[in-house]
Amino acid sequence: MLRKLALGGIRSRFRDYAVLFSGLVIASAVFYMFLALATNTAFLKSNSFIALTSFVFYFGEVLLVIITVVYIVYANTFLMSMRQRDYAMFMMLGAKGRKIAQLIFIETVSVGLLATVVGTGVGIGLTTAAGHLLINLLHAPATHFNPVWGPAVLWTFVFFLGMFVLAAFVNAGKLLKTPVLQLLHADTTPNRLQQKRSVLVLQAIGAIVLLAIGYWAMTQLGTLQLMGIGLALVTIVMGTYLLFNASLVALIAWLKRRRFAARGLHNFTLSQLSFRIRDYTRILAVVAMLFALALGAITVGLGFQAEIPALVNQQAVYDVVTVAPNAATRTQVAKLTGVTATQHYQEKTDRHYVYLDASAVARHPVQLMDYQNGKTVRVKVTAANWEKYADMAAQQLSTFRVPADGDRQFKLVPAARFAQLAGPTRTVTTYQVADFGANYAPIKAIVAAQAKQHGIKSATQSGQKFYSYELVNGMFSGLAFMGFFLGIAFLAMLASTLMFKILSGASYDAKRYLMLQKIGVRPRLLRASVRQEIGALFLFPGLLGVVHVLFGLKMFTGLLRHPYGNLLVPFSIFIVLYVVYYLLTVWLYESIVIHRDVTA
């Protein structure tokens, strides 16, 4: 009987349960995705040269647990709000408290268990898809990366089931102590009384102080080390909540006293915001933190990715060089894209030298990397300054030689003398491309074909830029992989959290919008009210999240040469996605609360 009542309650409010269930699925999926990296110590150690990476993930776990707890508590409150009227009816009809408690336990744990099972499966799927996609895009080795990670599965189930079992006991105890009439009218009662101005001022001051401490701690990681990360974690989370709690209440109260509230449906919109303001402050604080985590992770990931070509370009000028290419090499050369410069040189060899035709060098000076005044610069070498850079050329132009040449030095000779030299002429061609990463596959194939053709057995013999790229990429691509991977995960949870908060109250709000439609309010004004209300819920955490990121990037000044140098791309991409989430949420909310046909 209890099972039938529980299932009947779910069927009767299937749309609301679908919103709740989808939110919990995303929460457990993201939780698994994070743990798939955080608990895999072999992956963290092999893909990061930063000693504090494991500790950063430990603090990240704490932050994610805090965010997920808030999310589950709110989801649990929403679950109870959907069913407490039914429970009250059962109690009025004579149902015993023990039976009601069992019913609550069955519903709460069933929803939690099913969401955790599905969410873990979704998390494994997202981890697999995102992992392989990023590995292919970044050419990251991602050593020891495992999408199906047993400890992550175990701790996801332990955490979520533990939270829902605890929630079931709390729900049952709270409900049985609440008067029946209060249960019947709980969904129409505002959950926050007017706060005193002095309390709001103290909260605002406390928020500013806590955020200032947190931002300062992030700039002093070199001194504070792990204590700085922990201090920033605690103060920024608390400061974010207090800031929203104080500012939103004060802002809504201030706007209601202005002429702004009398225009259109502004007063109705402000009342909508203040009706469940307590839930808004908690959720918006969570959203602001998720916004900062997602945007920060993607920005740092792009920063590490940008370091790879910057460092590699300091090692060599030419992206790839071919010597007397055969058919296999020429086939791969044809696949290069975005070629910005191609230069051809003629060579001959004897027992002592590798001779270069000076006329070709005069037309296209050889480019080398030189260290001058603390900076690496490119220098052009011609016959006029060849002697000055002869030793440097012998080291950096190893790609102009093959193993059969041994350690022969290079020598420039005029075209006439070059023509008189005995032996075959071979052509050396240098290529420079706009994007080395985009040409990774053909360059790798060219290097392999040249190695097979000339018997090159080591990176030292080859001297190709590709091997420098592989070395640097192995150091930084793992960090970029972590940044992008976590950014995707937090972005998914960000969208889920805010959409869940807004859509979960839509069924209650629909009654008020229907009343307005029946008294003649035009749908255009209602849609404007929806856009303004939801826009405010998206705007405030977004702005504070951006501030968090701008201060948080200070933590990476010792790892990235220009942590603030590539903000336009990640910020633009993220803002576009955020706007898409906003428009989708508005569309879904309007489809629930605004009726096309209104009958009296």
Q: Pairing-aware structural class of the strands and helices?
A: alpha+beta
Percent of sequence in beta strands: 5-15%
Low-pLDDT segments: none
Number of DSSP E strands = 7
Radius of gyration: 32 Å
Quickly count the helices: 22
Question: Percent range for helical residues?
Answer: 55-70%
Order of helices and strands: HHHHHHHHHHHHEHEEHEEHEHEHHHHHH
Which features would summarize this protein structure in a list?
7 strands, 22 helices, two-stranded antiparallel ribbon, 600 residues, five-stranded mixed sheet, elongated, alpha+beta
Explain what this protein looks like in three dimensions.
By secondary structure, the chain is α+β, with helices and mostly antiparallel strands. The chain has helices at 2-12, 14-38, 41-46, 53-92, 97-138, 150-177, 180-184, 197-219, 221-224, 226-256, 266-275, 277-312, 327-333, 358-363, 390-396, 415-420, 440-454, 459-462, 465-504, 506-518, 523-552, 568-593, and strands at residues 320-323, 339-349, 353-357, 366-372, 375-381, 409-413, 426-433. Helix 13 packs antiparallel against helix 17. The longest helix is centred in the N-terminal third of the chain and has 42 residues, at 97-138.
